[in-house]
Design a protein that fits this description.
heterodimer, A: alpha/beta, 7-stranded mixed β-sheet, 17 helices, 17% strand, B: alpha/beta
Amino acid sequence: MKKRYDIIIIGAGHNGLTAAAYLAKASKSVLVLEKRDVLGGAAATEEIWPGFRVNTGAEDAGMFQDSIVKELFLKMHGLEFRQSDAVIFAPQVDAPALTLYRDIAKSQQSIAQFSQRDAARYPDFVAQVNGFTAVLRDMLLQTPPDLGTPHLGELVSWGGVGLKLRRMGGAAMMEFMRVLPMPLREYLDDWFESDALKGALAVDGLTGTMQGPWSAGTTLQYFYQHINGFLAQRAVAGGMGALSEALASAARQNGAEIRTGAGVARIQIDSGQAIAVLLENGDQIPANIILCSASPHHTFFDFVGPQQLEPRFMRAARNIVYRGSTAKLILALDELPRFVGQTDGGQLHGRIRHAPSLLYIEKAYDAAKHGRFSPHLVLDMRLPTLADPTLAPPGKHLLSITIRYAPYCLADSNWENEREGLVTAVLDTLAHLITPSPHHPISQSPNLLLTPADYEHQYSLPKGSIFHGQMSLDQLLVMRPVAGWGQYRTPIENLYLCGAGAHPGGGVTGAPGYNAAQAVLNARGS
Amino acid sequence: MANKYDVIIIGGGHNGLVAAGYLARAGKRVLVLERRHLVGGASVTEEIFPGFKFSVFSYVVSLFRPEIIRDLKLPQHGLTILPLESTLTPLPDGRFLYRGNDHWEAMRSIAQFSQRDADAYDEYGRNMYFMAKAVKYILGIVPPDPTSFKPGELLGLANLARHFLGLGEEKLYLLAKLMTMSAADFVAQWFESEPLRATLSASGIIGTFMGPRSPGSAYVLLHHYMGEIDGAYRAWGFHKGGTGGLADVLARAAQSFGAEIKVNAAVKEVVVKNGRATGVALENGDEYQADVVISSLDPKLTFLKLVEEKYLPGDLVESIRKFNIYGSSGKVNLALDRLPDLAGNPMQQLGHASRRLMAGAISISPHTDYLERAFDNAKYGEFSARPYIDIILPSMIDPEMAPPGKHVMSCFVQYAPYNLNGGWNDAQRDAFGDAVVNTLAEFFPNIKELILHRQVLTPVDIERTTGLSQGNIFQGELSLSQLLFLRPAAGYARYRTPIKGYWQCGSGAHPGGGIMGAPGRLAALEVLKEM
């Protein structure tokens, strides 16, 4: 007979691995099953060309929760963060470049090229974002309350968040409540007048969402992306995959088993209880509890199956909005590119952004809304080889470009037909931003394009939604993934969700994995 | 002294008149000052062309609070609301969706597009009815202050929380969705066919600068469901004689309690002495004194125009500057020689007179994308090339609105952005009017031949005539950032202002726009507590 595990975790993305590490640490026997041969899911580093190791999904670990790093001793397992002085570099076509640094005064100097008023306001803006995100951070590592039958413990811990809110003072609390549901455009317009600054800042609030800066609720998403503080971004030595490897190492050290190349076909259910996992190769592995870090869509419609769920829940699960709109183009370069308006190499160490104004972004979104990608794309770039040169052969570089907005649903076309067009559109946009190199034209560099369709098929992200469901106001907290099921449990007994489709959502935070592990441990009273 | 009153109300719109009625009923000496030659503000009826009467701006009544009707004894003064019984959505291909009083007929009409939608229709209606009833609670309360630790405020918050938690978990989530989703996404949870989806979500964009796919528009949709006529929800109504008829009823009611109403009396400013409002000064130099001055104008005018900034704390001035009032709609009023034909000749399809189809609202909303594209235009400073139009033919309901055999057609049009690229001028106004008529002609093929007169109102025209900033009918966007204790500004959501004796009672205050009278009533009751 097969070994029976206390816990099986489906998916070795960073959340699945976080849950595995915590549950193994609590002396559970844990098995993690990963379909792909690489660990990390959408936080992985893969060798695409010989000697080039590429972050195929997420690029940044700025949102990862430090408490998890400490509790799992991830640094002992090889995790090393790298921070740069420059955080956003925004080359402009007809103006000097905007550079934002970790250092506020230095940023102000650059902003002053565009607006003295904005430069003067910038420190207060940073302080407000930091103040508001500090409140939100408290909600990250907590299971949302059960509104139907709230427990005393929940009320106390969420009451604590409420109290913290009140302690900000009446005016700040009112401002917090006023701005959270706002469109990001209104929020940034309240603060700043410079298009270059507003455009460069706004990109963070629109990550992974099929919404533009005019959409209400994008301000909350903006704060969420700064959950560890304003522009607290950091790269991982060895690439994002090294974070997943560190989590895997911590899990293994505590006794967890991790199997790659082990695709799950179904979750076996008996009388409403999850009892085992059936692999694609026919193996059946029993477990007391199953955690699924795959999206709610895959969990409920592929692994569980509609016939196991009551119609009302099914309908709610079917109504989860996914709507992927992110694509990625990775270029292997023979030399470091030189951007227009660049004055020193240090500027390129953070994100390099092309989003010259809010209006520009909104127009790119509008095109996507109607099922096309705009020729005027929003680009959020990284040179990961500057943070860690070992990601490419000596002297070579990687340019990793996150493309907004590339809609999953194309009007009257499909992604096989549009691949080439998108690459061309990106390279055309880049041509205005990069000083041409006579020896190594960027257009002839090897490239890899990951479309929303690729993200769906290769990385199991439904409709290419990198957050396992849009992070809009109606899909957060007690409403994530389905209203009333915000506590990691599912209608199937012993089946839990632990991925980005659960509270608090997407981004490399580790929070859903951590929270789900706690929910499992609390439920069992262990 | 003749010029001394207990209360002066600036603006004779419906909220000002409701407040006047309540205060006069309580025995106060009340004076209402109206800038124009007639009362009503945005709810006026005017004979623009000889024999043709138009509800020039606001054109339907539905949100009006039943307690006001009762308290002010409005039926005695001639209140006559005639129900608008149907909604017709014509399609360019000649098909149409018709939802009227006959339930089975409506179901059949929906089923021609989707049987699934017809099956879901009742459940959707029940949910919206329930939600409207639940949210109606907030229309009757003064918003509590969430930052206060005072027992009274905490009790108010607790009551609010208890009310909503008492809805039960499922309804609570539905409410949370309504507060946050886009109208299109919300409606798509139930329905799959486009004419129905688009027409339902169109209620979420009326009067706002949002498209059906903008998050937050689902709340506006609910706002439009809160209407109540004789206890029946979601019924739109038309007042006999147009919306001006309602204003006249309110004016008569207020006068019957002793209120005085002066028209052609434009207020220049509120007189403030020692931090206290003592009266008002008119443009013509007249002055009136009062213990209490109430402004029914929008927040920008109330705080930034009628009083000097120096009397207000800086944070309030800043908040009011940030308060979003976007002009987004225009109005086209047509005088028609006779009833236009509907494309596709539905008379034959239905086997009875097409007249009946046109007795209710007619919604030009064939597809959600159609509406969204109309919004895209506005976002970039253009009027919609093919706009959303909400049409009614008041002369079908009240024949006195037009000469015998002839008709008036009221077209509420979105989007016409106040801040048009290059600004509004006569040529732009004509082009806008043409866009509306050309769109109408796709659905009413012979309409161009029937137009005797046409009045085109841009947001700038609406602002100029009614005074409403940007011509916005809600006196400010109904967005989450501007509701409840945030309307119009944090700390000033309870009809009071930082100036003693100076109050606000317009739609810019809680609970917001639409012809409901709630802000006027709640403000009056608050004022009375302190008099």
